Amino acid sequence: MLKMTHLSKVYRTEVVETYALRDFNIDVKEGEFVAVTGPSGSGKTTFLTIAGLLETFSGGEYHLDGIEVSNLNDNARSKIRNEKIGFIFQAFNLIPDLNVFDNIEVPLRYRGMKAAERKQRIMDSLERVGLASRAKHYPAELSGGQQQRVAIARALAGSPRLLLADEPTGNLDTQMARSVLELLEDIHREGATIVMVTHDPELAARAQRNVHIIDGQVVDLSEDPRFHTVHAEHTGTTA
Amino acid sequence: MLHIKPIVVALKRHKAGTVLIALQIALTLAIVCNALFIIQQRIGRLSRPTGMVESNLLAIQNRWVGVDDNATGPLIKSDLQALRQLAGVEDAISTNSFPLRGGGWSMGVRHDPDAKKPVSSAAIYAVDDHALSTMGAKLIAGRNFRSDEIVWVEQKAYAASPQIIITKALSDKLYPNGSALGKTVYITDTARPSTVIGIVEHLQVPWSGTWSDSFSDCVVLVPTQLTGNFGSYLIRSKPGQLAAITATAPRLLIKNNRLRTFSRDRGVRTFETVRAQAYKSDRGIALLMGVVCAMLLAITAAGIVGLTSFWVGQRRRQIGVRRALGATRHDILGYFLTENLLIGIAGVVIGALLAIGINLWMVTQFEMARLSMTYVAAGVVALLLLGQGAVLAPALRASRVSPVEATRSV
């Protein structure tokens, strides 16, 4: 479903080159629920933005659902984002001027879908996240957890092949975070491929597989001495 | 692809900015339509023909000094004789006024001396039998005055002349279904009839203001030479001789009799100067209104650019989210252009109604002409294009917002 091979992302200025990702390799199979973890600045978000075709990369290969995306133009990348990828952002990223229904409709309109089908999909996805009664509410009228559920409904409405979640519970309290995570687990059980970036070990533990990024590279947790330090610190604080 | 409904929904959440820009567009359209209409009318006035051979005409405004009003007749005769013999002069007349002079007599013309209201007002030019050849006015019916018909009277003693020549415009007003030639009319309210002995194709009244628009081509030539201490000479040069006689004619008059003055700005004028001075205020108003229109359009365009730039900056993250959800650059560009078009359409609909309303008010208050719908239609198109042009730069900027903006922290 998602395969990156020797991928790199370099930010260049006049005086310095900074590698956000270096020789980055990952292979996410269809139907997997993968948590991507790592310390701040490790490259998690860069990985997610490249995986979601929000940003281009500097080198290597990236196949998404069998398509090599490195040479695609902006329109083709927009089309793939619209049809194959569902985004769930930490800050929900709902459009404040639009109500719940209209927010979920945004990607479906860009797909050129007929009104009747759009309405059906929107109501189905709202049912799915348990917010069918809030279709006419504006984001500001909803709690954080409800807003994130609307964002998930927006991501699901387009029936994406891949769901990318960036710290989906980062802005939620524990109870809301738990319900959102349970929703993601339900969605995964129904067959969706989910890649979730998080720095919360508890959240990561709920995923099928964890991928750890340090300094822009995927590392094997059992062999990396840096992990042992981080892990030991973590264990120490939770013990 | 247009997404009108969500754009309208979003605009409803930003009422203040939307309404302000729509009103600005509406006011601009209303003012610019009417202003351009007035400019067009003013410019139209500038090029109205006088019915004379203007390129060869010199006007000299003469004021006798220290001469009794009744004694000016022989002096005028002497001046005319000298002017008509001057090298380069085709012909010359003495007259109380002439087209675009600025001042003159207007009198009512009636079929019946007892009628309360005249059929029309008309300008009176007191001239002699040299008037048609001097002015270059074209006689289209009847005859010219004979020299024996010319009477010399003091200005205050003027009474209606038994023979008159009128313009075709006045003839058509007096007798819409026929010609006035040979008919009897009454000038002012005197009971002395005047017979129309000739009709000239066209002559303009002395005034250029809008108040005389209703009779701007209605002129009566009377075979009368007025004596008094104030009058004008209209001199027609031979082709190519105007510059020469502009220099020689005043000198000749001074040499003929020194008891006179020519005023500095209106004493000796070619007709080109006469016309320029007559329409100075029209040109000024047209220029002023043009500047006002340009400023209004610039302010409106700046307002649109400002508001859209502000909205683009404010919605940068939202644009990123739309891009992340699959919007192409073209979709984002289309969003802002459509948004502006919707505001523009609301503005021009209100503006068109306002333009017509303002014009109707001016029609009733200032006897202005009715605004042509062509101006409204052209204004609507121009304002919509201006809006789309103004929004293009910020909309292009918006379309270049990267989808990665969606992941930026607040």
Count of structural domains of chain A: 1
Please give the share of residues in helix of chain A.
Answer: 25-40%
Oligomeric status: heterodimer
* Spatial gap, N to C terminus of chain A: 38 Å
Number of helical runs of chain A?
A: 8
Write out the strand line-up for the largest beta sheet of chain A, numbering strands in chain order: 6-7-8-3-9-10
Biggest beta sheet summary of chain B: 6 strands, mixed, barrel
Would you report the number of β strands of chain B? 14
Largest beta sheet: strand ordering of chain B: 3-4-10-7-9-8
* Strand content bin of chain B: 15-25%
Label the overall shape of chain A: globular
CATH architecture of chain A: 3-Layer(aba) Sandwich
Domain ABC transporter (chain A): 2-239
GO molecular function, one term (chain A): transmembrane transporter activity
GO cellular component, one term (chain A): transmembrane transporter complex
Pfam families (chain A): ABC_tran
Quick summary of this structure?
The complex is a heterodimer of chains A (239) and B (410). Chain A is an alpha/beta fold and 239 residues long.
Would you kindly provide a written description of the structure presented here, covering whatever features stand out?
- The complex is a heterodimer of chains A (239) and B (410).
- Chain A is of the alpha/beta class and 239 residues long.
- Chain A has a single domain (30-55, 77-238), classed as 3-Layer(aba) Sandwich (Rossmann fold).
- In chain A, 39% of the residues lie in helices and 25% in strands.
- Chain A is built from 8 helices and 10 strands.
- Chain A has helices spanning 44-51, 74-84, 100-110, 115-128, 144-157, 174-189, 201-205, 225-238; strands at 2-12, 17-28, 33-37, 59-64, 67-68, 85-88, 162-166, 193-197, 209-214, 217-219.
- In chain A, the strands form 2 sheets. Chain A has a 6-stranded mixed β-sheet.
- In chain A, strand 4 and strand 5 (67-68) form a beta hairpin.
- Chain B has 410 residues and is an alpha+beta fold.
- Chain B has 2 domains: 4-46 and 281-407, no CATH class; 66-258, no CATH class.
- Helix content of chain B is 49%, strand content 18%.
- Chain B has helices spanning 4-12, 15-46, 72-85, 131-135, 168-174, 242-256, 271-278, 280-314, 316-324, 329-366, 373-399, and strands spanning 57-64, 89-95, 105-110, 120-126, 139-142, 151-154, 163-167, 184-187, 193-200, 219-222, 224-227, 230-237, 260-261, 268-270.
- In chain B, the strands form 3 sheets. Chain B has a 6-stranded mixed barrel with strand order 3-4-10-7-9-8. In chain B, strands 1, 2, 12, 13 and 14 form a 5-stranded antiparallel β-sheet that branches.
- In chain B, a hairpin with a 5-residue loop joins strand 8 and strand 9.
- The chains are: A alpha/beta (239), B alpha+beta (410).
- The A-B interface holds A 45, 48-49, 52-55, 74-75, 78-79, 81-83, 87, 89, 91, 93, 95-99, 102, 105-107, 109-112, 154, 158, 166 and B 1, 3, 6, 9-10, 13-14, 317-318, 321-331, 402-404, 406-407, 409-410.
